[in-house]
Amino acid sequence: MKYIKLSIITIVFILSSCGNKNKFLLPTTEIDSTALQFDTILGKQVDIDVVGAREIYSFDNLLFIESKDPKAFVKVYSLGNYDSIAELCAKGRASNEFINPRSVCKQLYKDGDHIMLLMFDNVDVQKTVDVTESIEKHYTVVSKSETSLTNETRGSSVYNNVTDEWFVNKRVSYIDPRDHIYFPPQFYFSKNGVEKEVPVISELMNFPEDSSYPLYVYEGDLRLKPDGSKISFTCYNMPYIYVFDANNKTGKAFHECGKLSYNDDYESDDVTDIDLFYLDACVTDDYIICVYGDGKQSEYDANKRPIIKFFNWDGKCLFGFYPDQRIYNIAYDDNAHKLIGLDVRTEKVYEYDVQEFLL
Fold it and tell me: Strand, helix or coil at 179?
């Protein structure tokens, strides 16, 4: 009888332990930026006219704007004076043309003296555009093209040219979306076919029955620190920033204090009015710069403006401001200390001088 009682107690303890285990595995630091004051900063409209502009990013002394223009999906400008320098990635089926291109996590890097732009195209094709040679020759030069992307990794990986490896976010997956059975995302380093996973999510949150929330709640943006030492992941619909160390192959997280966590239950039942947090990000060796929502989708549909937050790589929010325009896509001019934002609704570009915050 004593043996039976002990076994029952042991089973209850095991079940209790399983029920209480953390679903989110990264060491997490709570961040609180409520003490900071976010004032409205007036922007200056930039003299750039791009029809169908949908994305903006920068590298070195260049500004890139992705558009829906089939004659040139990518426009290149000079930072500072915003002179037009090149029009790249025309629509077509030739090796140096594109069907429906998007940048791979806004990623550019240098190969010697050449600036390289990573693009994915037509679902599973990844192409590397030699920007420097393209500018010199006045047509798009594709240095490498490969078909190796899957639905889970397309657009969710960054190439680290410093360590010559990929960092991959394998998104939430499923066998049949109609079953509403989903599998947790994975994050791993990959080099020469060898993968090193960084454990992040052990199991998904508890969601409303037959919900598609898992397809949204675990999405975010990967960005590579220019010196190649770290990768950030900013979550669209949860108040988290992850930082992965490329040298130690480890990760950590920063969570907005008092907000929903991945160990909680997700109780909302309206996927069309989901919470918004880190809507876009760009990084420098000093900052993770984020477009921060902190509101519902319906609020932004009704013209709510986000906050631009500047974090250091240790998760501390250093400063931020409200832009006077509804910008959701950002780039940063590290030399002039100007944030550049795109309002995709009006297709207008604005710059914001943040020099005063750095003094």
Answer: helix
Question: Which two three-digit tokens encode residue 51?
Answer: 């029809």
Residue whose C-alpha is closest to residue 308's, from 33, 29, 46: 33
Using DSSP, state whether 317 is helix, strand or coil. strand
Of residues 301 and 161, more confidently modeled: 161
Joined tokens for residue 351 = 């710059």
The phi, psi pair for 297, rounded to 5°, reads -55, -40
Rounded Cα–Cα distance for residues 260 and 234 (Å) = 15
Give dist(CA 154, CA 223) in Å, integer.
Answer: 15
Distances (CA, A) of 88 to 95, 139, 178, 344: 13, 7, 39, 20
Q: Is 191:166 a contact under the CB 8 Å cutoff?
A: yes
Please tell me the pTM assigned to this model.
0.90
In 3D space, the residue among 315, 314, 319 whose CA is nearest the CA of residue 256 turns out to be: 315
> What is the average per-residue pLDDT within 164-174?
92
At residue 271 the predicted structure's pLDDT band, cuts being 50, 70 and 90, is low
User: String of b and e for 66-77 (b: at least 16 CB within 10 Å)?
Assistant: bbebeebbbbbb
CB 215 within 8 A of CB 204: no
Tell me if residue 348 falls in helix, strand or coil. strand
CB 104 within 8 A of CB 145: no
User: What average pLDDT does the structure give for the chain?
Assistant: 88
Confidence of residue 123 (pLDDT cuts 50, 70, 90): low
